Amino acid sequence: MLVAVPEKRQADEKTQEYLDELAFLAETAGAQVTKRFVQRLEKPDLRTFVGEGKLEEIKAFVKHNKTSMVIFDDDLSPSQLRNLEAELQVKIVDRSLLIIDIFAQRAKSATARTQVELAQYQYLLPRLTGLWTHLSRQRGGGVSQRGPGETEIETDRRVVRDRIAFLKDKLKDLDKQSNTQRKSREGVVRVALVGYTNVGKSTIMNMLSRSDVFAENKLFATVDSTVRKVVLDNIPFLLADTVGFIRKLPTRLIESFKSTLDEVREADLLVHVVDISHPGFEEQIEVVNDTLKDIEAADKPMLLVFNKIDLYNPEAHTGSHEGFEGMNPEEDHQPRPTLEQLKATYMAKMHDPVIFISAQERENIDELRALLTRHVAAIHYKRYPNQQPQDVE
User: Fold this and answer.
1) CA–CA separation, 14 vs 63, rounded Å?
2) To which protein family does this belong (predicted)?
3) 4 CB contacts (<8 Å, ≥6 apart)?
4) Same domain flag for 268 and 305
């Protein structure tokens, strides 16, 4: 079951779009979604995140339908997590834990696995309190007495802190190896594919580099950075496929994946891939730009590539509100602009080059290659002016 607590002024269609993304995350992690609950509040309840009445509704549904897990579209505090588990008697998962779990399933390299494990322990540390409270209740404790539960918590905290310190040291060593690899590639123009998760970066990577990078219609199909050498018009460059960004990406994951994101930070050119068929693609562009600011990579030259033009439908909207509790089914739907209108708008307002393609259907791919070649060549010949071809009269 999914639960969202949006702001009161947030449109129903936007709330549904966010819950669709949460459902996609849940399905990617291996869960099956059966119900969605929405409650509009000025601010979440400090004790249980949702209000008392909504909690009773959720509890009744969980009991009647034998639901095994409730997933919240926001981060829960340790006390909210404990209170909800005590009330509902099922596994409670918040957005951060769900994303970390998907990363854990997807991570293949030693670096990515270490980064995910570090994020897991950093998530766990503040939530250890309360795991052993049943032990401390077994005997009375005065001011000077510590119950066995408290002792157990301190032991666990120490173990977790030691593991976090060990993983941070391990990441430093792995980062040194990565830096050595990157230094060996100095001088070669470096291009990084960036974008929201599931926009088609890996498909474009495979097409441009003729390699076989794992691409799937699931969120975070790529967690490890993949770098391939590409040659266009006799100009070599390195193309990196990086982990996709997402709304409310857990801060601890960004921190853990800093070394992986070095491929973005050290790139000479960014190719920002956007899924134009997604109803919230403009917000996704903002999320990616904000994340690039967070990792200090927002000032790099950038090509904006709108992908999946074959799937764009001006008449499409996010669907009905069937299966939702707390949604308004009568909300008006505003028509979307046509593809031609979007092209005119974005080409007029963007300083950086913009191109519209379909990687799957191979539409406008030659134009993408030509645009990429032109920009890579400009960087390459600036770096190596003696290699610039001379005009022959």
Assistant:
1) 29
2) Belongs to the TRAFAC class OBG-HflX-like GTPase superfamily. HflX GTPase family.
3) 15, 18, 19, 22, 36, 37, 38, 39, 72, 73, 74
4) yes
Residue with token string 């707390």: 326
In angstroms, how far is CA 262 from the centroid of its own chain? 16
Domain identity same for 165 and 192? no
Distances from the Cα of 16 to the Cαs of 3, 50, 92, 315, in angstroms?
11, 18, 21, 17
Classify residue 362: in a domain, yes or no.
yes
DSSP β-ladder status, 226-232 and 235-241: antiparallel
Q: Which residues fall in the annotated binding site for Mg(2+)?
A: 202, 222
Per-residue pLDDT of the chain (393 residues; tens, 9 = 90+): 999 999 888 888 889 989 999 999 999 889 999 999 999 998 999 999 999 999 999 999 999 998 999 999 999 999 999 999 999 999 999 999 998 888 888 888 888 888 889 989 988 888 876 444 444 444 444 443 444 445 566 778 888 899 999 999 998 888 787 777 666 667 899 999 999 988 989 889 888 887 665 555 556 655 567 888 899 988 999 998 887 888 888 777 777 676 668 888 889 999 999 999 998 899 999 999 998 998 889 899 999 999 999 999 887 654 444 455 565 554 555 678 888 888 888 877 766 689 999 998 999 999 999 999 999 999 999 988 887 776 544
H or E element in which residue 330 lies: none
322: number of Cβ within 10 Å: 8
Total domains, the chain: 3
Put the strands of the sheet holding 269-275 in their side by side order.
Answer: 226-232, 235-241, 189-195, 269-275, 302-307, 354-356
Alpha carbon 299 to chain centroid distance? 21
Could you tell me which residues are annotated as the binding site? Answer: 195-202, 220-224, 241-244, 307-310, 358-360
Please check whether residues 173 and 216 belong to one and the same domain: no
Same domain, 128 and 227: no
| Residue ranges at the known binding site for GTP | 195-202, 220-224, 241-244, 307-310, 358-360
Of residues 91, 115, 94, 93, the one with CA closest to residue 103: 115
Asked whether the beta carbons of 48 and 87 are under 8 A apart, the reply is yes
Co-location of 112 and 68 in the same domain: no
The tokens of 323 are what? 């299966």
Q: Are residues 212 and 274 in the same domain?
A: yes
Domain residue limits at 119: 108-136+148-184
CATH number of the domain enclosing 222: 3.40.50.300
